[in-house]
Amino acid sequence: MATDPNLAPETHNSEQDDEQSQAQTVADQAEALRRGDPTASVKNDTTEVPDLVDHMRDMESSGRIDMGAYRGEPNMDDEEDRYGDGHDPDQE
């Protein structure tokens, strides 16, 4: 970068001569490489396991919580009949 001879020498910052290695330039280059929605899950068709993020979104949109994570665990609720039939996690 050429320095204007009419300016005082302290107005030139030699640390900024290499513009390509400056943080803002590197950040702009990195953002230009980003594509798509950063919150979208990556689909992997090689596995039979359902995607956890999609499963959570399905539960959220339906309003129904999948209690499968507790399947096989003992029900230690003192009021297991409180919510009526079909709400006992120990029943299959």
UniProtKB/TrEMBL annotation:
<feature type="compositionally biased region" description="Basic and acidic residues">
    <location>
        <begin position="83"/>
        <end position="92"/>
    </location>
</feature>
<protein>
    <submittedName>
        <fullName>Uncharacterized protein</fullName>
    </submittedName>
</protein>
<feature type="region of interest" description="Disordered">
    <location>
        <begin position="1"/>
        <end position="92"/>
    </location>
</feature>
<feature type="compositionally biased region" description="Basic and acidic residues">
    <location>
        <begin position="52"/>
        <end position="63"/>
    </location>
</feature>
